[in-house]
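Training component of the fellowship. As part of building independent skills, the fellow (R.M.) carried out the full modelling exercise for a liganded target. The chosen ligand was heme C. The inputs are recorded below so that the supervisory panel can assess the work.
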Amino acid sequence: MKKYQILWAILIIFGICLLLKCVTPSKPQPSDDGVKAAYEKKDFPDFGAMIPVDQFLANYPNHKIFKLSQDYPKALPGADKIPAFFKIPFDDKSKWMDWLLAARDYCFEGMIDANFIAQDNKKRDWYHMPWLHYGPLASEGFSGLAKEAPISPYQLAPEQKHPGQVYALGFYNDFAGHILYKMWNASTDPDPFITQGPKGGFPEGTVIFKFLYTELDSTDVHYLKNPYTRLAYITPTFKDSTNRIVKTVNLIQMDIMVRDKRAEKYGTGWIFGNLCYNGNLNKGKTMKDRVMNLVPVGIQFGNDPGYKTNWINPYPVVKTMINDTLKETFINTSADLPPQHLGWGGRLDGPVDLNTASCMSCHQTGEYPQFAALVPNEAFIGDTLPNGSMKYLTQTNAPAWIKYYQNFKCGTAYDPKKALSTDFSLQVSLALTYYWQWKSVTMGGHYSQLYAGVEHLALRGGMPFKMMKILKKSGKKLKAGALPKDHSSF
Ligand code: HEC
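Fellow's submitted model of the complex:
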C-alpha cells in the first residue's frame, strides 16, 4: 500500500469511531453524581425508624429516601456571608414583621424548588443534626422527621376533639453547620465545649429553622385545609413508643432561631420567630408552594422578666390575646392568623407548644448534661377547665418559675456549676444525650459525669404524659400573682 492510502485508511477508521461515539449512549460512569451521592462518606446514620427495604421498594418506588445533610462545613463562612436581614431592626415594633418575613425568605430560598430536601437546594447549603436517629423518638426514613411532642385535645382549635403528636425536622445554615462540624467531626467523642460561652457557641450569622408536622388534619383543625403534606413513619399515638405506621402528616408550624449580636443587649443574643399554617388562605398553586400559607405569629428576643402578671389563654382558644405591654415579644395582629394561645402572659409560643411556656424560656435551659427540666413542674400545677386544660397556674412565685422567666445570655448553662451550655439548642442537648446513652450501652458501663444530677430528656412537651397527669392532679397549693385587672380587654 502506498503511504497516502494508509493515511486515508487511518482517517476513515478515526471518522467511523468518532461517529459511533456520538450515537451510542454513554454508560453511567462510577463517578456519575448519583452514584457519588449514594456512596458519599457518612459518619452518622440518616434515620432510625423505617419499613423494611423490600416493602419500601415495592410500595414507594418514587419516594426519595431521607438523607441526613452531614457534609458540615470545615470553615466558618466570612462576615460578608451574614444574611442581609441581619440589618433589619427586629426590635422596632414597626419593623419586626419585615425582619421575620426576610428571615423566612432566607430559609425558603432554593428550598421551595427543592421541596425542602436540603441536598437538592441549589441556592444555599443547609445541614441536619446528627444522632436524632437514636432511641424511641427516632427520626424516620421517609422525611427525616423525629418524634417530638404530644398535642392535647382543643390545643389547636375549638373543634379539635382528638389528641395528636408532633414530628419535626430542623435545618442549620452554614454558620451553624460549622459548629456541628467542630462538635461532631472528631473520630472520638463529640466535644460539648464547642457551644459553651464565652469562647464557644453559635456564631453571629447562625440561622436555624424547623418544620413541624402533625397527623391531625382539617377535620380536627380547620386551618389545616389545603395542607402541605409529607409521608412519615410514625407511632400510631404519642403514648405508643413501639409501633410505627406510614402516614401522611401536615405542616402546622415553622420555628426560627437566629443568633444576632444585636439581641445581646436584651441579655440573650438570640431571636426566636414563629409561623403558623393557615390553609384557608389557599396560597400556592402546587404542593411545594403551599408553604406560603405559613402566617407570622411573632418574635421573641427576651423573656420580659419584669412582667410578672400571671395569666394564660386556656384551650380551646377563640381569640389571640395580644399583650402589648411585653417589650421582648411582638405578636401579629392580622386576621390571617388563626387564634393563638401563645405562652405564659402572652409571650411567644407556637400552636403545638404549651400555653404555660415560651420559646426562649424553654430553649435557654439547653445544657449538657440536661439537668434542667425543659418546663418546670409549676407549669402543670393549678386550676383546670372541665376539658382538662390548664386555666390558671398557682405556683408562679416559686423560685424555679421565676428563674425560668429570667434572661440568660447565649452560651451560658442553666446550671452553670454542673453542666455546659448547648447555647439554646435543644437538638444539640438531645444529640449529646443520645450519643452517651449509646456509648454506655455499647461499652456496657456508665460514665461518672452522668451521676452529677438527675437528667431530663429534652422533650418539647416538657415531660412524659404520666408525670404531667400526676402534677395536674396535685392541684392548688399557693395562689400566686393575680389576673390582669382587665383580662377581657385583650
Ligand atoms: C417546652 C419546650 C420548648 C418550647 C416552648 C419550644 N421549643 Fe423549640 N425545641 C424544643 C426541643 C426539645 C427541641 C429539640 C427536639 C426537636 O427539634 O425535635 C427544639 C428544637 C427547636 C429548634 C431546632 C434547633 C435546636 O437545635 O434546638 C428550633 C429552631 C426551635 N426549637 C425553635 C422554637 C421556637 C421558635 C419556639 C417558639 C415558637 C420553640 N422552639 C418553643 C423545645 C421547645
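The panel noted the following from the submitted structure. The first helix runs from residue 3 to 23. The first strand starts at residue 146 and ends at 151.
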